[in-house]
Amino acid sequence: MGNWRSGSAALLFWALFALRTVEPQNVSAPNIIIMIMDDMGWGDLGVFGQPSKETPNLDMMASQGMLFPDFYTANPLCSPSRAALLTGRLPIRNGFYTTNAHARNAYTPQEIVGGISKEEILLPEILKKRGYVSKIVGKWHLGHREQYLPLERGFDQWFGSPNCHFGPYNTSYRPNIPVYNNSEMIGRYYEEFEIDERTGESNLTQIYLQEGLDFIFQQTLARQPFFLYWAPDATHAPVYASKHFLGKSQRGRYGDAVMELDYSVGQILAWLVTLGIDKNTFVFFTSDNGAALMSGPKQSGSNGPFLCGKETTFEGGMREPAIAWWPGHIPAGTGINFCPGQEVTGVTTHTQQEHTMQPLIIHLGRDPGEKYPISVLSKEYQTVLSRVTLIVEEHQKTLVPGQPQLNMCDLAVMNWAPPGCERLGKCLKPPQSQPWKCDWPH
Q: Which residues does UniProt assign to the signal peptide (predicted)?
């Protein structure tokens, strides 16, 4: 079978946190920062071989901390991946899946009715009991209706958006996505928070950076342990960057966005050092899924040698860049073509295929690009299949699926009138409610 998949960011992070919490009580609680990028690929970092020199700060972070070359997300789509990260549970358990189609892949567009279940326990809810103050900056994506928003799920502060920055929309049929400051919207993307469709210019990453830096400073002054969940979405199409970074990379607008995010990571790490809290702050950097190759050459990143990308369960969709940094604790140095140009007969099919009875098995040690599935007629295939079948059966014995939250859609539940819209005069009239089963072609 080759290299076994080593689990998700959620499992690793919760394991590290559990180890830390068993230390003697006289040791101060560590601050925690999770930086989760949007659609950034394994091959986008210089430390993994990207030749464009766009990530000097991330490369330095890796040299000072622990680099994970075979790190996996729980799902190759934004919402279920983030739900897994914040709950420590697979999407099939936390409800971030659909039963409308065999593949179960789904996410949270504006018309989705559901969101993260109240039965799930999120990381900030655990940390709150230990005296932490938690803030999310950027993209939430676990449900946009009021009962699902971050301040209802353990976060104390929020600056960002419930959805991705798709748009702009004609508000007669679909509202632009709101931006929140805590529990109320303060504007919308493409309106108060501008993104230039033509040039890709936007100051959003700089706004998110400043929000993060200010939060760190405030909690340091208060001597309060904090959890910062920093989730910018500049590398998700339509890709954007601020004026200072536009045109600076060798990879078009996507590379510009990567350069700005790398700069921001560098600023956050430097700020921790300046404030003298770097040795008491655990920082984890990763992405929610692989690069979205279907977004085109100037709007998508690199998954290195790995097959395909976002929305697929091949290596390019599931293997993510990941770095852990904690000076003094972590030793240094440690229907859509989703696969353009990567056609593998019988593997990269563009319709959903049922592989349950005869799964594709690939030896990642010999074939990291997943080009040559092991023959079903071979002894090796039968040996591996028998081992995997036992593991699957054991998993299914104890599996209690969560209630699927991503089955139903309804235009009436979109962001027509978010909290705070009255004060801004930005409320829009919703259409009549007409729920339907969401269509998930991924």
A: 1-24
